[in-house]
Amino acid sequence: LILGERSPREAGRYRERLYRLETEARGLVSFRVRWMESDLLVWAERDLKEYALGELREAHRQLRDFIRRHPRFLHSMVPYEVPEGAPPVVLAMAQAARLCGVGPMAGVAGAVADTVGKALMPHSREVLVENGGDLFIAGDSERTVGIFAGPSPLSGRLALRLPPCVEGMGVCTSSASVGPSLSLGKADAAVVLADSAVMADSAASLLGNIARDRESIPDALRQVLPLPGVRGALLVMGEDLGAAGEVELVALRP
């Protein structure tokens, strides 16, 4: 599998999602699910495209209807208090934003991956949902996820080895140098492993925001690791790398 963003030289590959040609999940069926702004690549034990599309459309409907009534939710750069009875995907984004101190849309890709992935779990023991480089993963198999960090010389040379996780987890990346992520820092890749993809996505945004230079790497990791649900974190900044928590790194073959 592949995680992260592509370098400016390969920006077209990112926009067209051609990096997906380099992905593989042995023993699983892959299928693509698209609706409006979302473009997901899903792996499961059988083709569950119709289930996935239904969940994706419902998540979009919930978000669209909520934002129509609460337009500040879309643009807020800080946590946004949502009313009781807000849709599940909105509540998940708002809670993760509150814990991480970021805007609620920082976790939208992870929230969508969570929504689709969890809906497929009753139909497949192994489920993986990739949404723009952010991942929801559930199953009893070990997985290896490659890290691409734009112009960093470490890009494409390292991977995360993830243990089986039958209840599901998220692995998400934010980057200041490449890709569509909005980041206030300087990280080529700010990666977070968490109990959910929405939390991993929001925490990765925070991690990327506070990583300004190589001296800030240890402090940035220390700030993110204690957040509820966060399992591990990784920062790549040029030739420098820092990792903390449940992070097992392996070398990728050339």
What does this structure look like?
The protein is α+β, with helices and mostly antiparallel strands. The chain is 31% helix and 29% strand. The chain contains seven helices and twelve strands. The protein has an eight-stranded antiparallel sheet with strand order 2-3-4-5-8-9-10-11, covered by helices on one side. A hairpin with a 2-residue loop joins β4 and β5 (134-139). α2 packs antiparallel against α5 (108-120), α5 runs antiparallel to α6 (197-210) and α6 runs antiparallel to α7 (217-224). It is globular. The two termini are 15 Å apart. The model is unreliable at 4-21 (pLDDT under 50).
* Contiguous uncertain segments of 5+ residues: 4-21
Counted beta strands: 12
Strand order, biggest sheet? 2-3-4-5-8-9-10-11
Q: In DSSP terms, counting alpha (H) and pi (I) runs of 4 or more, how many helices? A: 7
SSE order, one letter for each helix or strand? EHEEHHHHEEEEEEHHEEE
Largest sheet: 8 strands, antiparallel
Name the assembly state.
single chain
Q: What distance lies between the first and last C-alpha atoms, to the nearest angstrom?
A: 15 Å
Approximate shape: globular
Mean pLDDT: 89
> Structural class of the helix and strand makeup?
alpha+beta
Radius of gyration: 17 Å
**What is the share of helical residues?**
25-40%
Beta content: 25-35%
